[in-house]
Amino acid sequence: MLRFLTKRLLEIIPILLVVSILIFLFVHMIPGDPARLVAGEDATLEDVELVRKELGLDKPLHEQYINYMANLVKGDLGTSLKTKRPVTEEVFERFMPTFWLTFWSMVWAVVIGLIIGVVSATKRNKWQDYLGMFGAVSGLSLPSFWLGLMLIQLFAVTLGWFPSGGMESWKSYILPSFTLGTGVAAVVARFTRSSLMDVLKEDYIRTGRSKGLSEGKVVWGHGLRNAMIPVVTMTGLQFGFLLGGSVVIETVFSWPGLGKLLIDSVAYRDYPVIQAEMLIFALEFILINLIVDLLYGVLNPQIRYE
Amino acid sequence: MVELKLSKKEEYMKLTAEQITSRTPFSEFWRKFKKQKLAFISFFFVVFLILLAAIGPYVAPYDISEPDYDSVLLGPSAEHWAGTDAYGRDIFSRIVAGTQISLFVGLSSVLLGAIGGTVFGLLAGYYGKWVDRIIMRICDVLLAFPGILLAIGIIAILGPGLGNVVIAVAIFSIPVFARIVRSSTLAVKSTLYVEATKSIGAKPSRIIWKHIFPGTVSSIIVYFTMRIGSAILTAASLSFLGLGAQPPTPEWGAMLSGGRDYLNIAPHVTLFPGLAIFITVLAFNLLGDGLRDALDPKIKD
Amino acid sequence: MKKARNILFLLALSLVLVIAGCSSGGGDNSDGEKKESEKASKSGKDIVIAVADNFTTMDPHDTNDTLSNSAQKTMLEGLVGFDKDMNVIPVLAEEYAASEDAKEFTFKLKENVKFHDGTPFNAEAVKVNFDRLADPNSGLKRHSLFSLIQEIEVLGEYEVKFVLSEPFGAMINTFAHPSAMIHSPKALEEHGKEVARNPVGTGPFKFVEWKPSEGLEIVKNEDYWKEGFPKVDKITFKPVSENGSRIAMLQTGEADFIYPVPTEQADSINGKNGIEVESNSSIIVRYLAMNLLKAPYDDIKVRQAINHAINKEAFIKVVMNDHGNVLDSVIAPDVQFYSKQDPYAFDVEKAKALLKEAGYENGFKAKLWGANHSSAIKAMEFLQQQLAQIDVEVEVVPMESGTLSDKIWSVQDAKDAEIELYYGGWSPSTGDADWGIRPLLGGHEAFPPFSYNISYYENTKVNELISAALATADLDARGKAYEEVQSLVWEDAPWAFLSTDNTMAGKKNYLKGIYLLPDGSLSVSDIEIE
Asked: Which residues of C190-224 are buried (b: 16+ CB within 10 A; e: fewer)?
């Protein structure tokens, strides 16, 4: 177990190295000249060349990469081409708000999703099941900009219960985390229902029932634990996706997050910021999926990793 | 635990025996499927959608690209069932005609993604070790890869076009399918009957196909049916980047996001395309649930 | 079948919910109508302004977006500036004069003005700032506007003279450009490039804190040189990029002033809940550029046909929601030396006839490039519909910013340029005809990659007139030259001339003295709560 963990953790370093090269090449390969974009539309060629020199983009690519890597090893992610601020500052400023919004959205969404999923599975093809399905499909197919703006219209403008945006108090979390979490809750609910139904008809559950264990005990004790594997997988993935930030939610609720930063930096071809964000996203997914893999073993000790 | 595993093995043997003696698998499937009323209705709705996709552009009551600047943003009425858009075009006609493109992009991209993801997931889960590590780390990177960059890259390399949208959306779906299928594979693999088959010396391809894949199907169906809606919406966001269908092509997702600026003054512009996506996703989910139950040999009725 | 009925019931239920959700907004509006005349009230003297994007920097010398300029203008000031109609007015200068040959510019400065850090404002401070701007090694984005400055002479404590290396008639307007605002020399010395985060100026407000993704906070400058101003204690700027959310903030009172207000929703919020929408003409022009080096656009008849085929009134109604005006020259009325032309009338028959004369009786196929934000796509789709009337089959190609700029500017030889039609907009931020015409239509010197002449328009007469207008500071002579330029360009029709935008701002009706200039920048120095 410990050996497995160390091995997986050590693996991260070479992976990130490879990823950094790929990302570097990819962002430099796509069309778009940051000097031109940063200098602006009404810049003359003279301005553009000045900016290019100032940003160090006039140097050959391999030199730029060596510089980038040398700084990266020292923990320096470079300077944003657009704002000329340190990338670490730019990213960190938005990482924590993104993290907390993701965290609270996940908490409620997973709880609600599990409850809906369990109820739907145990009341298969009854009205509870259909209500659950209906809710889940709504959660999946409602575009978040629509849901977000509707919630603002109702709870901020009409009722005045919550602020329409910003990040001032706990109240600011309610509307964005609800909007962000609906999709997750839907996914969790659907997967819980499906895998719980798979498990509920297995023998040992039937055995449990025949032994006279109460329905509740059977579901919560045996069924859910075994049904959790696909649910945990999906939850991990959703967690990773949300940690990448959501442009729509961040735009609608004026939330300082990584999603909008990414879109903005792509629009300006702000290479250092794009690279930093992609490295963070890759690291997030590697760590989350490592945790998910470990959870498989906890949930089902028969799953082993060689 | 030992007891459980044994009982499972017996169950497994019993089932295989049962299947052999039963009627043909298809008639059995059909018999079970017909019993699920809602899934059955959904099935016909999906058939209807596919039909609409084929004939939609010909049966739409109004011209879908002809503007009428004197009747912009009209609410629903007897004349325009779903109202008109910012150029005065009939929204209902555009939804009908847009079925083709939205359904095509939604279904084909998810299908491609599901096939790719399932293959990778089965391989990773079954073989484990370095195969698993490599495939899964590639998935991690793909998951972390921002969609907008991928789209820009695809436009730069392959150029714009609907086929490339399908590829882009499929690439987004592959790692998710791969991880889901892998997780189910791990769970199925750990059960005794697979171990037993292995020790008998069956070929890996046979074990994967006959014994492991069926155990992953229910998760695949669930994600497949859920993914269709988001694929339609993703395709629309890609056309905003210059990849995919361009105006005046009616596309549900694009019509929906085009109404964003009119949400306060003309909510019907977003509402109706939204409803079209909602009902489609609902139908596919109900159908998926029905298929899942009908395919499951353990569910009797 | 019971299950099916259940589902149907749920469907109906959700529909009701959705419709209730939509109409809750509407219901609120009708409430507002009743109290239309009511004045919104405000306690305290702290103002919140919601803007559409993050500010990029607080250093005007290194800024190329009007939004950041707006923030800087609250704290920093220039020698001269613009009034409500883009006329040049003195700010930190008492008076100014230009030599006949447009090579020497002398400014008399206001006395007893102090920067926020206590440093006195004087000729030396002016010199330090413009030396910085004129230095090509500074790497500042606005260097090129001031690269002609050869020498700055301090004539006295409050008098300074600029000497240019060659005549430049539009220089006074350049001094009024926001990039010519003045930092405290002490701050420049202490912070160097970090003035971008530590702005110290002479303006009505002092810098407190700026977090790019959350907002900017500024407070009243108690020692402001203009007696009795400013009249509010504190202003907070917040970036809110979603149109609907910005409006919601104004409705809930979380913001006192927002801009821009989306044209789609302007009329539905105006006059309700104590909200006033101010829609005024701007200097932003919208046009459809045609590549003159490419057939069929090399034929003037085709270009005129396209001009006649587009219904500009409908463009303003459908695309601008009636918040705009028909463009009747290459520059907008508020730009210096504007001269009105006779618009190309909307006449499909005439357009068809012109096309026939040019040999394109059956129309042709065209690609229309443009940005990928929703308003640009909307305009392009409209143009597609209009040109379909004369059988020109337009393919709309919206592009993401980087791809688009690569396509436009990576052109090495003008003849190889791929561009056919391009939907664009331009705001000449110096408010002078020169910057409204030369970068866009100034002959081969402005061809990409040098500048923005994506029509590849070249008319020797126009080039000569532009040069002549720059060689003098005599306003009459300049005016005459630009008058002729405008009529020549209008005849040549390198663009289909479409419209000018309106500046769109929304405010609570207790606010006074805050307004958008025609260049889209914000003025808050006279802000007041009633």
From this structure: ebeeebbbbbbbbbbbbbeebebbbbbbbbbbeeb
CB spacing of A146 vs B4 below 8 angstroms:
no
Cβ separation of B184 and A29 shorter than 8 Å? no
pLDDT higher than 50, residue C495: yes
Task: Please tell me the pTM assigned to this model.
Answer: 0.89
> CA-to-CA distance for A47 and A50, rounded, in angstroms?
5
**Domain residues for C340?**
282-502
pLDDT value at C17 more than 60: no
pLDDT, tens digit (0-9, with 9 covering 90-100), for C88-123: 999 999 999 999 899 999 999 999 999 999 999 999
Establish if C134 belongs to a structural domain. Answer: no
Q: Is C252 part of any domain?
A: no
Pairwise CB contact (< 8 Å): C264 & B262 = yes
pLDDT score of A282? 93
Cα end-to-end distance, chain A, whole Å: 10
Six-digit token string for C262: 């989306």
Those residues of chain B whose CB sits closer than 8 Å to some CB in chain C are 37-38, 41, 65, 67, 69, 72, 86-87, 148, 152, 155-156, 160, 240-242, 246-248, 257-258, 260-265, 267, 271, 275, 279
Query: Residue A300 burial by CB count (10 A; 0-12/13-18/19+): exposed, middle or buried?
Result: middle
Query: What CATH number should be reported for the domain holding residue C286?
Result: 3.10.105.10
| Separation in Å, CA of A168 to nearest CA in chain B | 26
- The rounded distance, in Å, linking the Cα atoms of C420 and B278 is 40
State how far the Cα of C110 lies from the Cα of C93, in Å rounded to an integer: 5
C192 contacts in chain A (CB < 8 Å)? none
Test B156 with C403 for CB contact under 8 angstroms: yes
Contact partners, residue B30, CB within 8 Å, separation at least 6: B294
Per-residue pLDDT tens over the stretch A65-76: 898 888 888 888
For residues A152-167, average pLDDT:
90
Specify if C405 maps to a domain.
yes
**Tally of domains in chain C:** 1
Q: Spell out which residues of chain A touch residue B226, defining contact as CB-CB under 8 Å.
A: 140, 186-187, 190
Residue A213 pLDDT grade (very low, low, confident, very high; cuts 50, 70, 90) = low
Is C444 a domain residue? yes
Residue C389: pLDDT band by 50, 70, 90 thresholds?
Answer: very high
Interface with A, mutate which of C62, C143, C252 (most A CBs under 10 A): C252
What is this model's ipTM? 0.89
Both tokens of C491, joined, read 């005849």
Report the residue of chain B nearest A242, measured CA to CA: B144
